[in-house]
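Protocol step 4 of 6: structure prediction from sequence.
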Amino acid sequence: MDWLADGRGFIVTGRHNRTYDNKQLWLVTYPSGEVTRLTNDYNDYYGVSVNKNSDGKTAQIATIILHRTTQLWKAKLSGTSENAVELTLSGNDSLGVSWAQNGALFYGSMASGNPDIWMMDQDKNSRRQLTFDSRLDINPIATNDNRYVVFSSERDGLKSLWRMNFDGSDQIQLVQGASLEGFALTPDGQTVYYHSYFNGSGALWRVSVQGGKLEKFADGNFQTPAISPDGKFIAAAYLPKDAKEYSLAIWAINQPLSQMRVVKLLEGAKLPGFIRWSVDGQTVIYIAAKKGVGNLWAQPVDGSSARQMSHFTVNRIFSFDISPDGRSFICSRGEIAGYIVSLQLNLDKSSFPFL
């Protein structure tokens, strides 16, 4: 953060809350504390320097924009990095991925210049854009009956859950006010579990894939949930009150939270982040990074030591999913590059009457 030349406020980078929101530029006035969002785009801004030679009417801001370059890769679980196959060649395909039972891949991508959902037919090596709204559409998850795709969206101005058919038709809203950082479908494809800050308090909720009545499932900050293959257990990134780091929480869906098991994951675990169950239901798979390199790790539900499941030697992993047969995985891998930009902010009273 950095102060304006006249001390009437400061510029800071940050997110609205802990979601997949990109870090944006904000103006905070002093001493009133009024907060105004200055940027509203799909860039990530890091660091701020304000030119102190300002005339009071404008502010010259220097900041760093971080840009992802990621591709989709397919590899065998527990295999070496040499068996990985690159499926997309350029751009940013890091906005969630789902491997459907029929073999189709659904993924969030910036290929159109906007965050949208795409579908890839692996057999025909073809891909097709499914969403075309100018707002953000990310994190698709396919139902196991190959009928629906549920995804996160901001198309109505609020973070919401939407549903569409496999071909992209019949797009309808399921939930308004859901967090973007992840949700889960039951194995029968009938129920969606999601996190929301409804009424100012965090909780897990659930709703039918057909829409309808919302049901609170568990109070607490449980992010990026995942349902076990038998539909009996749930795993989620858990942040207890006053805690600074997330842990992995696992408990039976039909049991109270007092029966919850909390597991401390490896250093470098990306929580809240993508969580998936193994096909046999014995482990929960997550992303962990060591020295800037991302790999998949499997945490046994009995609390024993985690096992490394992928062996990449370069790049980060941003999202992943497990194949229906449990033998392979799909992931978005790549790097983040940064560059310095200069922006001019007009400080006129019409734009900022409280300055």
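Step 5 (inspection) to follow. Residues 2-65+338-346 form one domain.
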